[in-house]
Design brief:
The complex is a heterotrimer of chains A (552), B (101) and C (782). Chain A has 552 residues and is mainly α. Chain A is built from 20 helices and six strands. The radius of gyration of chain B is 17 Å and the shape is elongated. Classes of the chains: A mainly alpha (552), B mainly alpha (101), C mainly alpha (782).
């Protein structure tokens, strides 16, 4: 594979948010000089942020348009030596898997950016909207986050990946902590709220990062010599392409055991746990509901839409690509954990009273499908897993946007407290029903494709345990229908609760985010072929590198 | 009795002592200034004396330079005293102690 | 065995059949509200009717093309590859063979008629546009189900009709019971869908992992873990990996391959049997069979045209259609066939018994539908697929007619559904009464009515079946079905007489109504009209039969009571007339061969089922027996009719009331149990609904207390640890540093007194210091 720099398009995509970020910083610096009012700066930062995310999304689509789906080779490579002394390269490029995530990132952040615009309906002075608070800082962090996510997906150097991975972390902390819900006491007297959730998110994810860092160092020192971008020879390498090739030659299988445990196993587990926290996988999922409940709407959108996928992507990119033997070794355990995610998440959903918490747990449930699909290691299941990531990346933002719509108006998300809202908000009801149906896997919408492929593929897996797992996890289909319809029932149907007489239906900002996502959901449900084409070769290559005997 | 270096130094030492005495004991700022002049001239006398007995004309030149400086210094100092007097209607140095601690 | 080589003939307009109703749905969903506000109802229902009508025209066109093509030809329309992953190939492609052709015609024809009817029934509905959008969407889903060329596409329609059913049952969502009924329908359907999808997965896996030829080393059965055999790859190619119906059928036509998969066992039962049973679970959900029938009676909460279209004529027959569609699978497993037929027969009897005592006219029809679907399953279960489809078709006509008739009655009676408050409507609503009677005769199986031909054929096929693994063969099925048929005849005519004969007992006698209710509550049963089923537990306990539930609803545009019912508008009666005619004449396409007349219907479907025809065996009874059974069927039909006539005509007979009032514990107990639908709903509610709620609460508690608790505990421990470290830091490490600072500060505090600001003091100090230095120098020098 030719790994020389051949395009700057991807680099532009990744750093477009950084350009926007710099522009906002420059604006702040020039503010005294230009005598700009606070409001002017706010408006300008919004405009810059929106333009930057729009540009990033457009560049992502442009990448897709230029992408050659007939190969699993990396494309749009930009590569040079970054830190010579540690053989660290700046190496970005995309294959089908990365590209699908880059495009999704663009779309989700664009939706998030639109949802971060101020709400020009009637605003309640007692409940200031997050979109009016420290606007330039918000947008700076927002764009920094987008850059981190894009970089994470584009990195083909392990160290660079780690750097971008950590870049994602910090903005998220502030975005939840500062713009999230204020600190409060929950009914049990425990402290909850944005700051609590932000710290929990930060520490939890950081713990995962530490595991990943250890695995990264172990992999580095176990790796063999490689040629760097400048042609010089290095003793060890972070370069993912080299690592993959060396892994294929068995360098990690032969590496010395650590603490008496085979190298592959211990590094695999460390890496897996690091990613699993982000997915989030049971039992490491509890940061997610808290983070979602207290994050402002666009941040929930981004968190569910794309940040969770970084964990799954990491598993595909590192666990699956570098440690195929490890995956086969741990497949049944990952499968079981996936099933626990699916079924457990669905049941916990049903008991939730907070709409956002319910959606958060449904994310836990739906990400379980990705884990199950990953573990099953059949073409259908892997495709299903990736497809589920993408479809969840479209549908869960819709759900969180919808939760935001009602919260902005009613300042509560207590499911039991509503009733008959369909009378006041018919359009909102229809869209929520649509999103719920998409999320519960109604055929013809995006969610179904991923689910059915995972099920079908896992059922055809070699290991008999997967058939049992599918049979168990398929139960979630009923539970999911149950909790979504019950939620519909409690919020929208039945006699109208006159407390909500003042609510009004959707406004244009909300329509602008929800309708495009809804259209995407339908397209992805009936015509998934473009996505399949994009990821097919990459997944085939991954599967081909599996130890012999995996059905294809 | 030959007048040698020790005699010059004794005169200079007396001058210094008298000057210091004046500085320490007098309250009037002008009197203190005069004490300062005595101390200065004691120093200059030393310079001249050492030059006379040590060789070279450097000390003499320095002394001349010092005299000129003393004149300038006296001007500035008197100006300050005048200003102090204007401000407080008194030139009592022991009372002008606002800069303590 | 007939080798039917499927010939696919491209029919590029096929996709329009489902698409047109979808366009109609989208149009009304987007523009309907505006159009209705500005231009009135017609702007909504004209497109809503035209689109399905267009579907009907194209279906008819395709059907005629099909009729002109050689046997075994199918109309085919490939659109795009949907899920092409690895060896899975699921296309968005539509296929119309003779079976799906019949279904498509029935669906589009009855569907279009019901759209027309709805323009009358729903004319005062504020959300008129929404109703038609849903109806069109349903047509789309149903047609995808019927015409889809593979399992997965069928599943799209399969779940889609479930969704539409939910939307339409909960159409009047302001009433909690109706919304809940919709939810129940969807969730119960999903239980079935789960079975269906697992069946498909199992089949896919089975086909993929069964080697086409026996491996040399291991001859014998391939066990559940036999996948390893297939994994060896090239030397033992699998049977195939298709999810398209025709391709699976073709694979199974190869005798070697068929034997391979039939011999395969999973979990101790045959793979194919398990696949069929799982698929049949799907059918029980969709077609309301035991044990998943409970949603259908509740589904009557929807508007009556919906009940006619979805819950009688089309959607609920999807299960029957599916079994017939997959005849090549079901025929391979006599065990599964037996289960299908037995469940069908039991459901037929069970539902008929509940139907005997219902007072809500729609509930009667609902249980009758469940029962009739049971008959269809008996037919497909014994391998008489064409009969099942035949009954499906005739049932679509007469049951749609009955439901629409009941809708006409309900509208006439100001949204009254309790038959005890009707009566005498024959004079007031003659067309409705006549069509209702014709349809009752059809469903009861009066000779020469459509139902007679199909039902009689079912009974005969069941009796004569050689496939059934039950002791006594088909005889048991026949007995059960015959009893159910008797019950059907009785309760259908009971509903007819209670509704249409005698005097009107509704609004005109309002005071009487109140008395009756009081009587019911007190258990005094002297009023034969009103206390028929007001058993001691009272009808009021049942929210669905609460006679005023419909009246208080927001949708009721009719004012108060006090008007006599009037005949419905022409939009409704004309539809009733058409369907009534078909209920009478629709059976003539399937005349019994026994009579020596051509059976067009069987001949039409013969190529579809040809590939498995030789495996459906008969018990070999002769014509004499068939004649005898036919005679018996007629006796049964008339028996039920006369019993109902005697007991319920004009409401004069005192026997029903007396029976209800009987003190006998046996009679009371039986009645109570049956009236309350054997308490199955309650049992399900307790076991499944409560059970899963309790489980979910417990898990949520576990999640927030234990799992999250552990996380927070880790945080707390971390904080405690750092607090301890902080203390050490403060006391020891910091202490030392601070000591130095403190000393210096203390010294400074004292020393600053030296600075007095008096210049002379400074000079003094300087001089003394200098002196001291000089002295020191001298001292040190010496």
């Amino acid at each position: 594979m030719d790994l020389t720099t051949n395009s700057m398009l991807l680099t532009w995509t990744v750093f477009t948010p950084a350009i926007g970020l710099t522009a906002i910083l420059a604006l702040l610096a020039l503010r005294p000089l230009l005598r700009l009012s606070q409001q002017a700066v706010d408006e300008a930062s919004r405009a810059i942020g929106l333009m930057a995310s729009l540009a990033a999304a457009a560049l992502g689509i442009a990448l897709w348009a230029d992408f050659d789906s007939g190969t699993s080779n990396l494309q749009f490579i930009h590569r040079f030596v970054w830190m010579k002394s540690w053989n660290i390269e700046f190496f970005i490029g995309v294959d089908g898997l990365s590209l699908s995530m880059v495009v999704l990132t663009g779309v989700v952040f664009l939706a998030g950016a639109i949802a971060s615009l101020p709400w020009w309906g009637r605003l309640d002075d007692h409940h200031p909207h997050f979109s009016k608070k420290r606007v330039p800082a918000y947008w700076i962090l927002f764009l920094l986050l987008e850059m981190g996510v894009l970089g994470t997906f584009a990195s083909q150097d392990f160290f660079l990946f780690y750097v971008f991975w950590e870049v994602m972390l910090l903005p998220m902390y502030f975005l939840i902590g500062i713009w999230g819900a204020p600190t409060r006491k929950d009914p049990d007297g425990r402290t909850r709220g944005g700051p609590y959730a932000a710290i929990k998110f930060f520490l939890y994810t950081l713990a995962g990062s530490v595991l990943m860092l250890l695995a990264l160092i172990a992999v580095y020192y176990a790796s063999g010599p490689a040629t760097l971008a400048d042609g010089s020879q290095a003793q060890h390498t972070f370069n993912l392409v080299h690592l993959t090739r060396q892994a294929h030659d068995g360098i990690f299988v032969k590496a010395g055991a650590i603490l008496g445990i085979p190298f592959v196993h211990i590094v695999f587990v460390a890496m897996f746990l690091g990613f699993a926290i982000k997915v989030p996988m049971f039992p490491f999922h509890t940061w997610l509901p808290d983070a979602h409940v207290d994050a402002p709407t666009p941040i929930s959108v981004i968190l569910a839409g794309i940040l969770l996928k970084t964990g799954m992507y990491g598993m595909f990119r590192f666990n699956l690509q570098i440690f195929p033997t490890g995956v086969v070794w741990a497949a049944w355990a990952i499968g079981i954990l996936g099933v626990i995610n699916i079924v457990y998440g669905a049941f916990v959903c049903m008991a939730q009273k907070d709409l956002k918490k319910l959606i958060a747990y449904s994310s836990v449930s739906h990400m379980g499908f990705c884990l199950l699909g990953l573990a099953a290691l059949t073409p259908q299941a892997l495709t299903g897993s990736v497809y589920q990531m993408i479809s969840h990346g479209i549908v869960s933002p819709m759900l969180f946007l919808l939760a935001g719509v009602v919260y902005d108006r009613a300042h509560t998300r207590d499911i039991e407290g509503f009733g008959g809202l369909a009378q006041k908000m018919p359009e909102y009801t229809a869209l929520t029903g649509f999103a719920f149906m998409a999320s519960l896997g109604l055929p013809g919408l995006a969610g179904f494709v991923g689910e059915v492929l995972v099920f079908l593929g896992a059922f055809a897996a070699q290991d008999g345990i997967f058939r049992v797992l599918v049979a168990i996890s398929a139960l979630s289909v009923i539970v999911t229908a149950g909790y979504y319809l019950w939620t519909m029932q409690r919020i929208f149907l039945g006699p109208f609760n006159h407390r909500w007489e003042h609510l009004h239906d959707m406004n244009w900002r909300e329509r602008l985010t929800l309708y495009p996502l809804a259209v995407l959901t339908v397209i992805m449900g009936v015509w998934p072929l473009p996505v399949f084409d994009m990821i097919r070769e990459t997944l085939n290559t991954l599967l081909a590198s599996m130890p012999a005997g995996i059905a294809g | 009795m030959t007048i040698g270096l020790p005699q010059y130094l004794v005169v200079s030492g007396v001058l210094l002592a008298l000057g210091l005495f004046a500085i320490v004991t007098r309250k009037n700022a002008v009197a203190i200034l005069m004490g300062v002049e005595l101390v200065l001239n004691a120093g200059l006398l030393n310079l001249v004396a050492f030059s006379r007995f040590g060789g070279g004309l450097d000390g003499q030149v320095f002394a001349l330079f010092g005299i000129v400086l003393a004149a300038a210094e006296a001007v500035v100092a008197l100006a300050i005293v005048l200003q102090v007097f204007r401000a407080r209607r008194s030139v009592d140095a022991s009372k002008a102690c606002e800069l303590k601690e | 065995m007939h080798e039917v080589a499927p010939v696919l003939q491209d029919f590029p307009l096929l996709f329009l059949i489902p698409l047109l109703p979808l366009l109609g749905a989208v149009w009304n969903a987007v523009m309907g509200a505006r159009m209705q506000r500005r231009f009135g109802n017609a702007a909504v229902h004209v497109p809503a009717i035209l689109f399905p009508a267009g579907s009907f025209v194209i279906s008819l066109w395709s059907f005629i093309t099909l009729a002109g093509a050689p046997h075994g030809t199918s109309m085919y329309n490939y659109l795009w590859a949907w899920l092409p992953i690895g060896n899975l190939q699921a296309d968005v492609a539509f296929l119309m063979d003779r079976l799906s052709g019949v279904m498509a015609l029935v669906v589009t024809f009855v569907g279009t008629l019901i759209h027309v009817y709805s323009t009358g029934y729903m004319k005062d509905e504020p959300a008129y546009w929404r109703f038609f959008a849903y109806l069109n969407l349903f047509m789309f889903a149903m047609l995808v189900l019927v015409l889809g060329d593979n399992f997965l596409l069928m599943f799209v329609g399969w779940e889609g009709v479930g969704l539409c059913s939910y939307l339409l049952i909960s159409f009047w969502w302001r009433e909690r019971e109706k919304a809940v009924a919709g939810m129940k329908a969807f969730v119960v359907n999903r239980v079935g869908d789960l079975g269906f999808s697992l069946g498909v997965f199992l089949l896919f896996w089975g086909l993929m992992t069964t080697p086409a030829s026996p491996p040399a080393s291991n001859h014998g059965q391939v066990d559940a873990h036999g996948a390893a055999v297939a994994a060896h790859g090239e030397e033992a190619p699998a049977l195939g990996t298709s999810v398209a119906f025709r391709e699976v059928e073709q694979i199974l036509q190869d005798p070697v391959k068929r034997t391979r998969i039939v011999d395969r066992n999973v979990l101790g039962i045959g793979l194919i049997t398990l696949v069929c049973l799982l698929l049949f679970v799907g059918a029980t959900g969709k077609s309301a069979q035991i044990p998943l029938y409970t949603w259908l009676p509740d589904a009557m909460a929807g508007p009556t045209p919906v009940s006619a279209l979805i819950h009688a004529a089309t959607m609920v027959t999807a299960g029957v259609y599916m079994v017939a569609r997959l005849h090549f699978l079901f025929t391979l497993s006599p065990a599964a066939m037996t289960v299908v037929a037995t469940v069908g027969a039991l459901t037929a009897l069970f539902a008929a018994s509940i139907g005997l005592f219902q007072n809500d006219i729609k509930k009667v029809l609902a249980y009758s539908t469940v029962s009739q679907l049971g008959f269809m399953f008996v037919a497909v279960g014994v391998g008489a697929y064409w009969v099942g489809i035949f009954h499906l078709m005739t049932h679509a006509f007469f049951k749609a007619c009955l439901f629409l008739g009941s809708g006409s009655v309900i509208m006439g009676c100001h949204h009254e559904q309790d038959m005890r408050k009707m009566g005498g409507l024959k004079k007031l609503m003659p067309i409705t009464a006549a069509t209702y009677f014709v349809s009752c005769a059809a469903i009861a199986g009066f000779p020469f009515f459509s139902g007679f031909f199909s039902k009689d054929e079912i009974l005969w096929k069941a009796f004569n079946s050689g496939n059934i693994l039950l002791p006594g063969g088909g005889l048991i099925l026949w007995v059960i079905a015959a009893v159910a048929a008797l019950g059907t005849s009785f309760y259908m005519f009971r509903s007819y007489y209670m509704t249409f004969s005698g005097e009107y007992r509704g609004a005109a006698s309002h005071g009487h109504d109140v008395v009756a209710k009081a009587d019911g509550a007190h258990g005094a049963h002297d009023d034969p009209h009103s206390t028929d089923a007001h058993a001691a537990h009272g009808a009021h306990a049942d929210p669905h039969s609460d006679p005023h539930a419909a009246d208080v609803s927001g949708h009721d545009a009719h004012g108060g009571h006090g008007h006599l019912p009037v005949e419905s508008p022409w939009a409704m009666t004309s539809v009733l007339a058409v369907l009534g005619f078909l209920a009478l004449a629709g059976g003539y396409v399937g005349l019994p061969l026994l009579w020596g007349l051509p059976n067009v219907f069987e001949a039409w479907l013969e190529p579809v089922f040809a590939s498995t025809a030789d495996r459906v065996t008969s018990a070999g009874f002769g014509h004499g027996v068939e004649w005898a059974l036919m005679g018996f069927s007629i006796i049964v039909a008339f028996g039920g009719f006369f019993a109902a006539r005697v007991l319920y005509k004009d409401g004069r007979s005192p026997i029903p009331a007396r029976l209800i009032a009987s003190e006998s514990a046996l009679v009371q107990g039986t009645h109570r149990v049956i009236f309350n639908k054997y308490y199955v709903d309650e049992a399900y509610g307790f076991v499944f609904v409560k059970g899963s709620l309790v489980l979910s609460r417990a898990l949520a508690l576990w999640d927030s207390r234990v799992i999250d608790g552990l996380v927070n505990l880790a945080g707390t421990i971390g904080r405690a640890f750092s607090f301890l470290q902080g203390a050490i830091d403060r006391l020891f490490v910091d202490g030392l540093v601070e000591l130095v600072g403190n000393v210096i500060q203390a010294a400074g505090t004292r020393m600053r007194r030296v600075q007095t600001g008096r210049i002379q003091a400074y000079v003094q100090g300087m001089a003394l210091g200098a002196l001291a230095l000089v002295a020191l120098a001298y001292l040190l020098a010496w």
